[in-house]
Amino acid sequence: MKLALFGVGNAGTRIVDQLLDAESRTDRPLTDGNVLAFNTTPSAFADTSHIDDERQVVIGDIHPDVSRPEDLADESGEDRREGVAGDPELGVEVARDDLPEIRRALDLVDDTEVDAAMIVAGLGGGTGCGLGAVLLEELASIYELPIYVLGVLPTSEESDRRAWTAARAVRTFVPLADAVFPIDTESWLASAESDDYDELNRAIATRLVSLFGAGERETAAISELRMDPNDLKRTLDVGGLATIGYAETELEEVSEGWYRRLRRLLGLDVPEREPQTDAVSIKNLVQRAADSKLTLQCDIETADRVLLVLSGPPKELSRKGFETGRYLLEDKTGTVEILAGDEPLPEGSRITATILLSNVTGVPRIETLQRRAVEFQREQDDLSASDPDDLSAATTLSTSDTQRSAGNQSTGDDQSAGDEQPPSDDHGFDFQEAELVDQSEADSEGESTSSEDETEEEPTPADGDTADDDTAATESESTGDGSAAENEPQKQ
Amino acid sequence: MKLATIGVGNAGSKLIDRMLEFEQETGRDLCRHVLVINTARTDLAKPDHVPEDRRVLIGDTHQKAKGHGVGGDGEVGAEVAKNDIDEIRRVFDDVEIHEVDAILVAAGLGGGTGSGAGPVVIDELQKMYDEPVYGLGVLPGEYEGGRPALNAARSLQSFVTKVDNFIAFDNDAWRSRGQTVEEGYEEMNRELATRIVTLLAAGEVDDSDVGENAMDSSDIMRTLDTGGVSSIGYASTDLDKPEGLLSKYKKKEDDEINSMDAAKIKGLVRRAVNSRLTIPCEVSSADRALIIFAGPSSMISRKGIESAREWLEQEADTVEVLAGDDPREDSDTLAAVVLLSNVTETPRIKEIQNQAVDAQNKIKELDAVREEEIASLITDDDNELDPIV
After folding, report:
1. Tubulin/FtsZ GTPase domain spans which residues (chain B) (predicted)?
2. In a domain? residue B370
3. Is the pLDDT of residue A419 over 70?
4. What is the mean pLDDT of residues A125-132?
5. Does residue A290 register a pLDDT over 50?
6. With a CB-CB cutoff of 8 Å, which residues 397-436 of chain A face chain B?
7. What 3-state DSSP class applies to A359?
8. Same domain, B69 and B161
9. Are residues A110 and A203 in the same domain?
10. Residue ranges in A195-318 assigned as alpha helix (H)
11. Range(s) of the domain holding residue A430
12. According to the 3-state scheme, what is the secondary structure of B240-303?
């Protein structure tokens, strides 16, 4: 399946770059160059090596609230927050303002040459979530293609604000996209020695390329049960969250012994090499893929549809093993909508099993994320309610929040650098931080205070002025739902 | 018999390809017209013996297909074929129908294209021509899972009601350990091609001076006339080819001895029926039956044919049993092929139907809760979090 890839924000751009690298290494033409990267600050493009300059698009750099690198020349440490500074509403706003720019960039992508589009973004970031959502709306309205989202979830080490942003991103992207592949960063990093994002990014790239690139290899031998793009499309058709499992078996490299060489020299028949695998080992491989660490950990019994791709040298792919493996998946997942295909790689040195599970609903990670997000949102509401005169409440909070996520650049799209400072609940301190931010923006004329902007877009975090009046609170909360509004007065 | 053959989908196309290969190898001339139809461009590139201009891609302009298959969904397969019916009809126009006795449509019933587009193609053929249209359908194995079983169970209904006879092939009966994916399907297709070509090619010349035992197309068509589902049995034995002048001289003398005795001929038929049928069935449930011996006519004794016929009459519990030969003087094998027409007791079809009902129920269950489950997954418990756009 040919994909057009759209990297959004820091994390998204980096993963797209990795995917392009994997694409060229494995000789599976996946994108045919149909790639774009969007960011709210040019510095996010610094580390990319596979994305052409003209395909690196900076959005919103003329917006008054967006911090350009030159604006921050005098800033250092946590004040140096480029782009939309982790604010998803601002990400949405700048993307909407710059829609013509986005549309012009989309002309570089030939949507008739691809089978689907995929947005890759860090869901906890302001750019990934905000700009990503607007881009998703835009792609959905102009393309007749399925649109998938690969979204990196923040870890528990990252700030609550990022968790809150990510939970809202999931809520936003899933209904708009044809399928969302959340990346469960936490479970991948937990096993790594350190914060080894390289391993995570490589693992993502391997899985995506094995899945979407199956059958795209130009030199591929003819496959008996080829995975057509429509097989993938149908599996993902159900929407919701999708996840990928993967396992491989290395084949022994057999060098030609003297006996075979002699026979060949004498022009005699060289006996066929015995395959190194059989039905049982192929079945076990499928089993391992099903039990493997998924891109999103879930209860696989909740999967709606499943797709299995078995790649490797054709003489190693046992039919019985293949069919038993497929049956095993039906047994384990309880769904009958299972498609399976083979990808013969005559020169391959390993056999791989890649499993796509679509619309999985038993996902503890998402529930944890939501609980954290709700808690954060309630804290914010309490804070702004208890301090109704502080117009800068929202700004303040996003700033104090920065400190906690400062050490975590890899999935963030904020260029915050410098030493991490302990989070502070002290309002005086927060207030100072807020002033600093305001100063950094002071040069822009007609600056609307960001807290007011936020009040318009999203009343929940910043409706401090009205929250102590019960009726007003209910009204302002009504964009959420009744239960939130009911809870509000009780807390006061 | 002279056939127009049409392969629909990946399995059907490969079957037709193997039939062409087998008839070329054995000097038969059964398939006078060939056509393969598919929804996936890449699969159309696979056949070795089907001319380029006899391969038709359908659904390349269909939003759900776009030349990339139908994702194993029979309903999309049918929809695509209906949309492109003009295109299909146009290719049929090339078929010189007066040159053929019947039309054979081959398809895999577990996939989306064969199960969905196959019946649409058959409908059209039945509308256009008076000649009988036979179906050759590959049923999915148990291990292929619920979705293929559902496709097959639904498609089987369409096939059997629309065709004049449906020859079934059960994937499960032909599975064996140690095959690779590639070999497995290759082997099955060859086995099935051997059976179907040996059966239908009998009497292709309809030359009256071949002898009174010779089968002609009308006999085969009469046997298939029953409708329903049919199964084919097959057995063959290698003949010692006489070599050189001396043995040729010797052969003349020993002609009587070399000709197989009646017991051996009967044994061959018994093996054909008791070995793997294309679909396992209760032989006694057959409506009509037919035996064809293909090989050098000197090897086939009339007595043998008669005793084999009598044996099958008893086994199949019907008096409608025809037996005859298809002289292939150059052949180094003697093959017996048995057609059991309209067999009604086929346990495999029952199993597929049961598997399909289960599958359909599971699919309905999932469909019913899908939207709700997604919504509850992405929404926090009290719905406090708002979407961003």
Report:
1. 2-204
2. no
3. no
4. 95
5. yes
6. none
7. coil
8. yes
9. yes
10. 197-212, 229-236, 258-265, 279-291
11. 365-491
12. CCCCHHHHHHHHHHHHHHHCCCHHHHHHHHHHHHHCCCCCCCCHHHCCEEEEEEEECHHHCCHH
Question: Taking Cα atoms as reference points, which of A22, A57, A88, A30 lies closest to residue A414?
Answer: A88
- Domain identity same for B157 and B238: no
Q: B318-349 in b/e burial notation, b at 16+ Cβ within 10 A? A: bebbbbbbbbbeebeebbbbbbbbbbeebebb
- What is the nearest CA distance from B156 to chain A, expressed in angstroms? 19
Residue B16: other Cβ atoms inside 10 A: 29
With beta carbons under 8 A apart, name residues in chain B contacting A278: 178
Q: Range of B162's domain?
A: 3-201
pLDDT band for A70, please (50, 70, 90 cuts).
low
pLDDT above 70 coverage of chain A, percent: 72
Q: Are residues B33 and B127 in the same domain?
A: yes
Q: List pLDDT tens digits, range B194-229.
A: 999 999 998 776 554 455 677 888 899 999 999 999
Band of residue A436 on the pLDDT scale cut at 50, 70, 90: very low
Q: Which two tokens stand for residue A14?
A: 């980096």
* Cross-chain Cβ contact B181/A481 below 8 Å: no
Q: Which residues numbered 166-195 in B keep a CB inside 8 Å of some CB on A?
A: 175-185
| Contact list, B370 vs chain A (CB under 8 Å) | 238-240, 304, 359
Asked if B181 lies within 8 A of A371 by C-beta distance, the reply is no
Residues A415 and A289 in one domain: no
Which of A308, A343, A358 terminates a domain? The answer is A358
The verdict on residue B362 lying in a domain is no
Contacts of B182 in chain A (CB under 8 A): 224, 314-315, 317, 344
Cβ contacts of B138 on chain A, cutoff 8 Å: none
Query: What pTM did the predictor assign?
Result: 0.80
Whether the CB-CB separation of A461 and B368 falls below 8 Å is answered with no
How far apart CA B59 and CA A1 sit, in angstroms, is: 17
From A302, A325, A358, give the residue that closes a domain.
A358
pLDDT band at A218 (very low <50, low <70, confident <90, very high): low
Percent of chain B with pLDDT over 90: 62
